Amino acid sequence: MMRNIAVVGTGYVGLVTGVCLSDIGHHVTCIDIDEQKIQLLKQGKSPIYEPGLEELMLKNINNGRLTFTTDHQTGFHQKEVIYIAVGTPQKKDGSADLSYVHQVARDIARNIKQDVIVVTKSTVPVGTNDEIRQVIKENLVSDVQVDVVSNPEFLREGSAVQDTFHGDRIVIGADNEKAATMIEEINKPFGIPVVKTDIRSAEMIKYASNAFLATKISFINEISNICEKLGANIEDVAYGMGLDHRIGNQFLRAGIGYGGSCFPKDTKALVQMAGNVDHKFELLESVIRVNNVQQAKLVEKAKGFFGSLEGKTVAILGLAFKPNTDDMREAASVVIANMLIQEGARIKGYDPIALENAKRILGDSIEYSDNIEDVLADADIAFISTEWKEIVEFELHLYSKYMKTPIVFDGRNCYALEEVEKHDLEYHSIGRPSVYRSKAKV
Ligand SMILES: NC(=O)c1ccc[n+]([C@@H]2O[C@H](COP(=O)([O-])OP(=O)(O)OC[C@H]3O[C@@H](n4cnc5c(N)ncnc54)[C@H](O)[C@@H]3O)[C@@H](O)[C@H]2O)c1
Ligand SMILES: O=c1ccn([C@@H]2O[C@H](COP(=O)(O)OP(=O)(O)O[C@H]3O[C@H](CO)[C@@H](O)[C@H](O)[C@H]3O)[C@@H](O)[C@H]2O)c(=O)[nH]1
Question: Where do the annotations place substrate binding (predicted)?
Fold first, then answer.
């Protein structure tokens, strides 16, 4: 059955949720306080890069099921369900900043004139939905019924639309069967298995899932570090491990650590959450430490080879925290760039999509190129920090053509060693033997 829905926050989660809910037949109004974003959205333009999103958005704007506003009162008018999808960034102490979520709770209380179900999509610490209920209750101006449901989001950036239509599960945490059933009905057209539970368990499922995935990554990165020292090859090791269904073959890609807007902040928030109830989460603290070391690994390696990087011209290939996104939050490239700045290197960066966002973070401390050839031109060293398809498919003989010296430090194991060995290239990757130019069969 079609429902009238508002989604508050038009970031990666809110916009994708709003667009996909409208696509399965609901009437959706997306609300954001950012005037510029809403202006763009009204013109049918997505403020974020997410494959397939803009097309789907246009389709549903044109069929009248999707609208945008900056005004909460207009946005909440006659809505039966309101999704909260605003940011929950990390505070200085690592805990989640809930000020945006609380603000939305007050916005809801002050503007609704009908019964609603408030659905929290934002990643929030266990107990937050109880707080949301309380804040709404304290600020309500109309005599209406408000139910609160936890419905954490599991989409990945770069495949957010695909993940929304083909997710593994939809988690619905509620203390009221009627509200839970309504959210289940809304999502029915997606045809994804539903897990119904209490609110606190739903909130924990989100953090535990992200922490577990981060743990897999730090685990394989530690194994890769040992492989390097013992002469094993992490690619073969991960493949051999992943064939065991109990382990699974996903999230075993060794590299320069996890970044992005979720794993770094959510792992820290879970450590804080545990600490608040006097539990020291030793395992997760180690996962975070391992990741910090791993992000610095390529530059440390290069320093090991060169002694000093002062005055070297260094190309960074890929700036986004992962391929197929423009998101630069907690990207390994930023760690690399900042370390190289300290070293006194001249730095050039390239990314097919994230250049504008990179400029906002790194400013003029580095130079920017809009193609691979240009970023490699005259470089002494290249660092690969994101496995964009065009970087993975870049022809290996071109490194020696464009670079001053073809020395590549690959943080994402983009190339097979047998291929590298066929070219004039010095190649250092993660958890695999290095290849030296003398090996080249040129
Ligand atoms: N990005 C992801 O891949 C992802 C995946 C799953 C869960 N999450 C979680 O979802 C939440 C949102 O993440 P995101 O990456 O989409 O955030 P984002 O920063 O991209 O977007 C948040 C949006 O909320 C808007 N906003 C803030 N306060 C508002 C208010 N009072 N009213 C209306 N709009 C307001 C901001 O202007 C911004 O556009 C976070 O809790 C995050 O942890 C994110
Ligand atoms: O084997 C792997 C897999 C991932 N990564 C890195 O891990 C980070 C996160 O990657 P990914 O999980 O693909 O992207 P996100 O968009 O951050 O998605 C994660 O974070 C979201 C926000 O909470 C969740 O919704 C998703 O389920 C969860 O996968 C990136 O830096 C990747 O380079 C690795 O190093 N090795």
Answer: 154-157, 206, 251-255, 259, 322
**The pair of three-digit structure tokens given for residue 74, joined into one six-digit string:** 């207009």
Distance 15 CA to ligand 2 centre (A): 19
| pLDDT over threshold 80, residue 441 | no
pTM over 0.95: yes
Tokens 């929304």 correspond to 164
| CA quadruple 297, 301, 307, 309: dihedral, nearest 10 | -60
What lies within 8 Å, CB to CB, of 195 at 6+ separation is 169, 170, 171, 172, 205
Let me know: does 408 contact 424? Beta carbons within 8 Å.
no
In 174-307, DSSP assigns E strands to 194-197
Q: Which residue from 383, 386, 366 is spatially nearest to 257, judged by alpha carbons?
A: 386
| CA-159 nearest atom, ligand 2 | 16
Q: For residue 69, how far is its CA from the centre of ligand 2 (angstroms)? A: 31
What are the pLDDT digits (tens) for 337-379? 999 999 999 999 999 999 999 999 999 999 999 999 999 999 9
Structure tokens at 13: 């989660």
* Distance separating the N- and C-terminal Cα atoms of the chain: 66
- Residue numbers annotated as active site: 262
**Letter for the amino acid at 210?**
N
- 131 and 98 in contact (C-beta within 8 Å)? yes
Segments of the chain assigned to CATH 3.40.50.720: 4-197, 198-441
Among 2.60.200.40, 3.40.50.300, 3.40.50.720, 1.20.120.1630, name the CATH number for the domain at 4-197: 3.40.50.720
Question: Ligand 2, closest atom to CA 327?
Answer: 16
Annotated binding residues for NAD(+), written as ranges, equal 32, 37, 88, 123, 157, 265, 329
State whether the beta carbon of 271 lies less than 6 angstroms from ligand 1.
no
Which atom of ligand 1 lies at the shortest distance from residue 154's CA?
6
